Structure formats: C-alpha cells, structure tokens
Amino acid sequence: MLRLDVVIASTRPGRVGKAVADWFYPVASEHGAFDARLVDLAEMNLPLLDEPNHPRMQKYQHEHTRRWAETVDAADAFVFVVPEYNFGPTPALTNALNYLYLEWNYKAAGFVSYGGVSGGLRSVQATKPLLTTLKIMPLVEQVMVPMVNQHLKDGVFESNDHHRDSAQAMLDELERWAGALKPLRAS
Asked: What is the average pLDDT value for the chain, to the nearest integer?
C-alpha cells in the first residue's frame, strides 16, 4: 500500500484548510490504494529555514528538521491542501518544501485548493515549479473549491458532487504516478 500524506498548508489562526482537509482525508483513506496520514504544518511548527547546510547534504542540525525529513521520506505521495495568499502559496508551504531535497524526489503530488473566485488555482500554479525542482511530479487532476466559505456550515466543509468526483479522479491518477515513481527511489 502506498503512503499518502495529506498536508495542510495553512498555519494561520482562523484558517479554513483544516476543515477542507478534514473532509478530504477520509476520502483519501477510503480510496483503498493509500495509507493516508494527515500532516498539519501548524503542528510541525517549522521555523523559517534555519539549517546551516544545503538540504541535499542531509546533515540536519535540528530535531524539527529530522522529524520533518522522516515524515516526508516515509511518504510515496502528497496532497497539498492549499489556499491562495496574494496569488501564491502559503509561506509555510514554501518553507516546508525548501527544508528538504532528497526526501521529496520521485514522488507525486496532487492539490486540494480553495479560496475565492479562483479557488486557489493561482497558488497551485505558483507552487508547481518548486515541486518540479524538487523532482516531485505535480498532477493535472486536482480538487478546486471556489468560494469556499459557501461550503462551510458551522466550521464543517460540505462537499458537492464536483468535489467528490474530482477527488476520486485525482486519487486514481495519484495511485498510478506514485506506483510508477516508487522504483526510481529504490535506486
């Protein structure tokens, strides 16, 4: 079974990402191909990149980096639950991605994006070049939630058919890519 980390990319107080992730995580768990884990960047509490050595060297000086490296290394694939901050990714996600290098290589990633009218799409597009630099394969298939506040009832995200169908398509494709990339990590 493939390990899938569902990463909540927003860390700010009052965030919506936790509610969206709380909907998506069981969907990923029930898919059948994945041992899904919920990873909250707020709980990881990574300071602004503070390692003295380049991540490629893997000479981590801090416990928080070693813990993050173990989490990322254990995963076969990722789904980033992302909002849009000024048309781009959250600073917490950019920081978390930049902390490591080899642990990310040859893995696949999908997105559950949310926001206003754009549904977080600009954030996803701005994140993809960073992912490919880390040798992560970003998928075309994703879940996009425009006007996310219209889907929140008492703090709980209520999905519709489009969200559920998009999640299924993304998870199916993520299974294909994660499985295909796994042998590259063994060498």
From this structure: 97
